[in-house]
Task: structure prediction
Amino acid sequence: MSRIGKIPVAIPAGVTVSVAAGRVHVKGPKGELSTHVLAGTEIAIGGGTATVSSERITRNPAFGTMRANLQNMVTGVTAGYSKTLEIVGTGYRAALDGKKLVMQLGFSHPVRFDPPAGITIKVESPTRMVISGFDKVLVGQVAADIRACRPPEPYKGKGVKYEGEYIRRKAGKAAGSA
Result:
């Protein structure tokens, strides 16, 4: 039985949650999100909270997931989400060209990344950028897409990595004479 699924989701002031036609809509000061209600679950709204229920709580794996998705949507439209990326490597840097992110990552050409709607990219320094938005899934996917342009390599650690990510290092070739 999901312990997380039983906890009601608090709906703060300024946020509206509605369920219609198998979809749940959450609207708040930062934006509006919507997702489908997972099969076998129901959402009841009342008294400033939203409660997720299921006919068969013990056998429905979507019970806790639906509650977590609803909580993430409420948090996103009120506070938002952000991920920080760091660039490691000599000559590796990032800059904004309007809304586009332009990165020098050791290739013969600059890598350009156009963020989707709802995502804000802020370059704090040439080697540090913050991706923010109100959709947790989209923020994580954009951060993963930027990291995939040049993932950190295990020998020198050069590339784009998440803030605080540990890069497991390998030993290089042993220099020696026979």
